[in-house]
Amino acid sequence: MIVGTLWLIFLNTGIFSIGIIFWNRLWIRRFGIQIPGISEKFSSVGQVISHFSPILWNFDESYWIEYTGVEGYIYLLFQRYMISLLFIFTMISLFAAIPATFTNTTEEFTLMSTSSPTNMSSYTTWFQVGMVYLFSSAVFMMVFMLKKRVGTMLQEKAKERSHEKDHEWLKLRTVHVRGLDISDRSGEALATQMNSFLKDRGGRVVEVVLFPDFQKLIKLEIDREKTILMKNLFESDYPPPPVRCLPRAALNHEHYLLELDEIEKEIQEATMTPYWNSGHAVIAFNSLESVEKVLYHYRPSLRKTILLGLSNIIEKWKGLQRLRAFSATFERFPDDKDAAHKDIVVTRAVDPYDLIWVNVGGTRGFYFFRRVGVLFLAVLVLLFLSTPAALLAELKSIIGTDAQWFDNLPEPVENLVQAYFPSLFIIMLNQVLLVLIDISAYMERHYCHTDVQSSILNVSVVYLSLNMLIIPGVTLAATKSLVKILQDREYLLADILGELHLADSGAFFINVLLQKATYSCMFYLLRGPEIGMNYFSIWLGYQTRKDLNEHDKWRRDESQVFQYGYFYALMLTSFGIVMTFCSSVPLVIPAGLFFFFLKHSVDSFNLLCVHGKEIHGEGRLLRSVIFYASLFVLFYQISMIGFFALNELRIHSFLVFILLMGSILVALMISGRLYDIEKDDDEYYASIREDNEDTKHQWRKLYAHPLAISHI
């Protein structure tokens, strides 16, 4: 099996090398590569690698945060911790294989192949228990160290910014409000309500900014900028490269001049209609103490969610029964200073850099009906479109041992078909179906990029875990269907997961990791999504990305942002595969190391040289990642309990059960916030003494709508 694994690594490395050649021809030689901080532009893959490698090796914190943002730095830091962890796991497995091999009575057995009851000695069974304890402890230690490092970094930078700039100090004491009455246009009613609540609690409102309902206007503005770009690209004296999938009428600048005139007319009409507030606002308070009291009082609850849903229904019904009053200008539209803001939801404010302004709207700031529909769609995807793993059994019957059509093939080709293509089939079909998950997250209309990526992460990690780990692992262990296995095991979780270790499935999961690393990294290195979204034109994709990076960040579409959610889910699922089989199929560990090393190299380049700093979520995604990583450790322990129980090794099961109980407590302890600046009494009780108009002005500029000045 060791030789086979090395051969698979060599094969996938060769395939990725072909991708490097295409990358050099399609992107580097045509457009060159600009590495931030280096004035020279490189036009060969050798130059890019020689200059990029030292930057990646040194991994200077200030450099990477400056050019990729805090979220990008945390993402890459997580990968580096995983690489270090899997390297340690690999060394442990190599050293442990020596005594395990000599103490086993089966001549052909080695710990570097699948361990099963028929080939395990007494030493090996106890060794498995020891490995469960060792690997679980190592993961929790890694997670704790990562969380502490990131939390310390975030807290220090937050304090540093707030001490250097007063408006940054005020930003730490800002909350986001949704569910506002639409008739409050100035925010006076909201400020009055908050001041009334804080009057006897020693707090007050410093400043309020309401977000206007400019959804239609900002969509038109984004369309206008795209049209201007296309007009400029096609009016050059030198004809651009052919864009074969673009309609013939769209290949000249006159087409875009007409389109631009239509957009300008729509913008003019939109600016002449009255605007309401979007249901969103941000409020700055005088202290963190005031913020905590407001957050607790207006915290989300089941009752509030139901009432907000009913309010949305009433609002929609009223909108169908009567038309809103219109006036010719913004100034003549009434402002209800006594508007009652009932059942509002208050949360900590996100960084203004993270806002998706085109989604700031809805009915009183919410999209209840849309999200209920999308949730229903997501359930359908998870339940009925989880076809790759379900089709695996059918695929096995086609190319398995009962099939005769490949018997006349040369032996190397026959082995390749049986070992390589089932896992490749699952990976390719998964990639297609994951597009539906992305679309569903975009349809939910989240108001910040971090929430979009979090939604993709939550759905993708469940979907990928089912199709890349659980369903294939369980069905490979038996010829029965998954439903039949569930019935036979009486739906006992430990017994069902114990089936994962009964099949000789090591080669399959090693293939999954190696192929996913190769094809996913090659696809995103060649910037497949950008090519697809730009009529399959590399030239147009390059020009679009260049324009996005040089102009306003708020114009980015969700699909144009680095896909943190999907990539985190993919890495977590791969980590879950490694964790599940790390003690029974140790060769899965170097395969996982190959996956994370390749992923880290490609993602580092894309974040630094293609996407740059795009979102700013203060590490909220990492908190979810830590939670899921802990779940995979618990999943591993439960599967080992089931494995030992199925083979009547009760003492072993009991010892792992004790570890499981302790691991649950540890997982709960490390699942909290990355940092809590409120724990610092000096920060918590610090209060603004006098209102500085310049500070408030700078704070308002942070949260000002990008179109508020140019169109009002």
From TrEMBL:
Question: What GO CC annotations are associated with the protein?
Answer: plasma membrane
Membrane-spanning segments: 6-23, 81-103, 123-146, 374-399, 419-443, 455-478, 565-598, 625-645, 651-670
One GO MF term: calcium-activated cation channel activity
Record keywords: Membrane, Transmembrane, Transmembrane helix
Q: Where is the CSC1/OSCA1-like 7TM region domain?
A: 370-644
Pfam entry (one): RSN1_7TM
* Transmembrane found in the keyword field: yes
Top-rank taxon of the source lineage equals Eukaryota
What protein does this entry describe?
Answer: CSC1/OSCA1-like 7TM region domain-containing protein
